[in-house]
Known about the structure:
With 428 residues, the protein is an alpha/beta fold. It has 14 helices and 10 strands. The strands form 3 sheets. A 6-stranded parallel β-sheet has the order 4-3-2-5-6-7, sandwiched between helices. Helix 5 runs parallel beside helix 6, helix 6 packs parallel to helix 7 and helix 7 packs across helix 14. The chain is globular, with a radius of gyration of 21 Å. The relative contact order is 0.15.
Amino acid sequence: MMRRRMFCVIILEVLLIYSSIPKSGAFGLGNAPPGLFHADIAQLLKRRNSFSQGSNDNNGCDIHPLKGNTAVVTGAAGGIGGEIAKIIHRLGGTVVALDRDVAGLEKLKDTLDDEERSREGLISNESRVWVLPTQHQDLDSVSHSANQIIDRFDRIDFLVNNAGLTYRDDFICGDERMKATNGQDLLFTVNYLSHFLLTEKLLPNLSRAKGRVVHLTSTYHWKVDGSEIIPGDAKCPQAYEFDPSSQSTKHIERSYGNSKLAQIFHSRSIHMHAPDCDSVCACPTWAATGIGGEDARDFLSMMAFPIEGSNEGETATTKIEEIRYGPGITSAINAMFRPREELGDALNCGRSFVANSRTLEFFVFRNSLLRWPIWRDGLTDLLGFLLLLGQRITYEDFIIQETSPESQDEEKRSQLYNWSRKEVQEWL
């Protein structure tokens, strides 16, 4: 009887979502929203307190408001990280690009250097792109890159924790491909712990600049309740374990959600330990990147938000302010550049993150339904599917969206932070 009742509720939810979504939306299921122009992003920066001292006239200086700023971006060789690196560079900032893909990093550097010379006519021997090949599965590598950054830059204005991965469907627990260099779970190490280490090492530099940390997280954090990312009686969280005998029975399918909830917990801990540094989480929703592997790339390119704009007719001589960026990175852009006053509840220890689709909000019973462990995994997958179907017609450039009730658990957040500090202590 209980299962039948729950099934009926789910069907009603689906019908509610379908009936609530405007069928005559501006974009439709097959058309992507337009995203933001470079000039729009420059306007965001003008509204931030640190850039509001000068003139508000739309002169040439306004398209380079990040001149003198330094931004560290992980996973910068492609995807969302690569697009963010381009935006920062075009805004006049210095980009510190981290990725395991050495060739991709060099291509990014060459592209941006060539663009600056051709589009802006600048001739300089000093590049504003510094590439650091980094293996996020290896905490030694992450620590070494952080030390190089610290030695070179006294102040860091932005840190974008973007690098990440998901497990393929053919992986099984105990697969050696799921083991990080430290002998523990690869995904939890790459997505969460490596970024925890990088952030903690760079916090003094970020604090000196009154900088901002941005975590690229996900609605899929709703899939988990946080019990697998705190150590409890064990020496480490279940989500971090590589040994199948110590893992949850649903380790693989929950691994991504666990890492994203851990990122949210970390983001909300930063301001408590470094009050001069802000932290914001952003959800790109379904974005057309390579995170799901090559098998998923074609599917995502059809259904998900593009990360690149539809720049038909764009050439090397196109004015910077006329460049358009895809809707798949608008949440990250807003998390980075919006004034603190506009971020509201998404800032620091708030209860929300920056999003770009309202589909989740139509799932009105999510807080109660997803508290049932027996339903949670399947319901979250259903929610993810509905999000994919509805995101294009519920898109808005800037949304503050509440995260799961479990993500607001201060005790679990504190437990994870304390364990994480101990786990990376030898590199701090």
